Amino acid sequence: MARTWGKALFSKPASWLNFRRPLQTMPSVFIKTYGCQMNERDSEAVAAQLVAKGYALAPSEAAADVVLLNTCSVRDMAEQKALGKMKAVIGDAHGRRRAPVLGFLGCMAQSRGQALIDQLPDVDLVVGTQKFHRTAEYLDELLAGRREKVVEVGEEAGSEAAVREHLLTGRARKAVTAFVSIMQGCNQYCTFCIVPYTRGEERSRSIADIVAECRGLVALGVKEITLLGQIVTSYGRGDIPVKNGQSPFVQLLDAVHEIEGLERIRFTAPHPKGYGDDLVEAYVRLPKLVESAHIPVQSGSDRVLKLMHRGYTRERFVQIIQKLRRVQPRMGVVTDFIVGFPGETEADFAGTLSLVREVEFDNAYMFKYSKRKDTPAATMPDQLPKEVLEERNQRLLEAVNEIGARKYREYVGARVQILVEGPSKRNPRRLMGRTRSNKIVVFDGAERHRGELLDVRITRAGSFTLYGDPVVLGMEEEEVPGVKSEKVAS
């Protein structure tokens, strides 16, 4: 899935400072998130639960009574970043009069458990992936002195439906988009991936439960919902029967599409084998389902795909993209690649480069293979040296960037529709929104535009960002070679 490394959502010195005096006010909490949108969503739910109990959200770890790091285990670098950050927080806390409560949440917490406290004795809390909804309860016990340390990484039935709270206020005056988790876990067991071991087997929520959550978000002003799952297209398999030729996931899309006031639906991250004809046809039949697909391919070599246990061939992947582009020519297609998988030859890597040129992805997320403990790939022969991973990653990056830059330049002069989300992250004086095909557009606008579907004329293209001006009513629409203007869905 698409990655958002080191994103802060909202920080005990050495053991001699373990004594905690009662707080005179409700404590403040700072949560830093590493990893994917699933982690972002989990962090938001934990923060919302804490706010509901009276906790304040601190602007930084230095100002917080509680510091929580929501961790990722997909790559070693993500784990090392979280461990390094916690060590820094512990060091900075030495000069404070009162020791903050420190905790790890998420995938690394799940995989390492008690070992995290053994390694860093100043850590108080370790919460696994099926216990997020109990974080507030555990913090209350720690702050009240009823428990000295908490390590909770066990399985819990029904946890897939327990992460449902949202923060719809804060820096933004109103939330325009929201993530909704529809399932937990993964049954794919790719040979490189630790996720099935940290998130467990697939467990899906009911359609009615998901729709109720989405309807509540729309009632609070949300216009776009992104459905989340480790393999989101596997939703409901084994629990919900196929109906009228439609998979459980397409049945869910139909149900969410019926929510009045909802403007757009996205989902991430799917698996190529989940793109049956019913899902391809849904892009035509459901106008709220936007023309955007993030489909991880991982490699362009059939030999490597088989070693990865991906369950499809290069040809099958290309056929899926062709089907999507036939029904929606403006489909924005993004993918993931792993560079330097054990045994990957130069010929295998050449297959990946040729796939990039054949498909012409709008963008791609590239990751150098990272050995993960207890995964089959970790013990495979022919582990590649770091310098090979670096060199191949650079070549792949250059190929993706070259194609992406050309595809973005083709938008200059086009009229597109965006959903205005709020201030641009790089320049808060300007606003940003996304096209239906998931291109970021930055423009000059007023606060009143937030939450609006707005037509914009693209004036220039940057590095995977478009810039434009709102279209004046009555302005004639121009056709731009290579890009058909993105119209309002009806």
Task: Please characterize this protein's 3D structure.
The chain starts with 6 loop residues before the first strand and ends in a 20-residue tail after the last strand. Strands 1, 2, 3, 4, 5, 6 and 7 form a seven-stranded mixed sheet that branches. A five-stranded mixed barrel has the order 16-17-18-20-19. β19 and β20 form a beta hairpin. The protein contains 13 helices and 20 strands.
Outline the fold blueprint.
Blueprint: E1 7-8, E2 28-33, H1 37-52, E3 56-57, E4 66-71, H2 76-92, E5 101-106, H3 107-112, H4 114-119, E6 125-127, H5 135-143, E7 150-152, E8 177-181, E9 183-184, H6 195-199, E10 203-204, H7 207-219, E11 224-228, H8 248-257, E12 264-268, H9 277-285, E13 292-294, H10 302-308, H11 314-327, E14 332-339, H12 346-359, E15 363-368, H13 386-409, E16 415-423, E17 431-435, E18 440-443, E19 453-461, E20 466-470
Parallel strand pairs: 2-3, 2-4, 4-5, 5-6, 6-7, 8-11, 11-12, 13-14, 14-15, 18-20
Antiparallel strand pairs: 1-2, 9-10, 16-17, 16-19, 17-18, 19-20
